[in-house]
Inverse folding.
């Protein structure tokens, strides 16, 4: 029995020698190599051959509201006719809209939306959002411009979630109202 124990001891100690370039015998290697497919690896089992399968056609993420408008002025006008601001105006909505505007829009548009943001004139000066043209655009068109972008203005859809876009629109309207003394 002692001999057996000594042998096991010797073998175990021998397994610990380092410096060898040859891999040692691996006991239960399943624990070393991961069995599942890696997220971005090809996959022979799934329908589309990808491990992270594309969502089925028409899938809508939970809590997401699809925005069914393409790019461009025609779609912008259509959004203006069809969409209304679903967020009721409230001090909270206004405060949030102001924060969103300050964070994501003011670098270009300026804190009072006059087109004099920090980045101007390094970036092309945007039109004033309190001017006649922006005042005449319906809420849905503003929402479309924020969501899809317009010419040089990039889409802000990734940075600003839909509800926050509507709140930012409330805030823009309040800047416009301050500009015109309440007359739109
Ligand atoms: C990278 C700079 C930049 C940022 C950030 C930006 N904009 Fe703009 N925006 C522009 C430019 C430039 C234009 C003019 C585009 C054009 O030529 O039609 C514009 C146009 C607009 C217009 C149309 C104005 C009009 O009279 O036609 C609206 C509305 C608007 N932006 C709202 C926003 C809002 C709201 C945000 C923040 C969520 C925002 N923008 C963020 C640069 C920016």
């Amino acid at each position: 029995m002692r001999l057996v124990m000594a042998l096991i001891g010797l073998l175990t100690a021998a397994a610990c020698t380092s410096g060898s370039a040859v891999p040692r015998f691996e006991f239960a290697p399943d624990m070393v190599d991961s069995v599942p497919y890696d997220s971005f690896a090809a996959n022979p089992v799934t329908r589309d051959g990808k491990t992270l399968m594309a969502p089925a056609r028409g899938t809508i993420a939970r809590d997401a509201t699809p925005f069914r408008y393409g790019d461009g002025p025609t779609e912008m006008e259509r959004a203006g006719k069809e969409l209304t601001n679903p967020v009721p105006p409230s001090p909270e909505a206004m405060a949030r809209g102001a924060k969103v505007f300050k964070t994501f829009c003011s670098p270009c548009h300026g804190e009072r939306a006059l087109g004099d943001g920090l980045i101007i004139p390094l970036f092309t000066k945007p039109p004033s959002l309190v001017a006649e043209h922006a005042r005449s655009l319906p809420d849905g068109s503003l929402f479309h411009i924020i969501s899809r972008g317009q010419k040089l203005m990039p889409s802000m859809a990734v940075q600003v979630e839909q509800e926050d876009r509507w709140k930012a629109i409330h805030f823009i309207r309040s800047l416009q109202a301050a500009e015109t003394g309440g007359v739109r």
User: Anything to note?
Assistant: The pocket of heme C is lined by residues 104-105, 107-109, 123-124, 126-127, 129, 133-134, 142, 145-146, 150-154, 156, 160, 168 (CB under 6 Å).
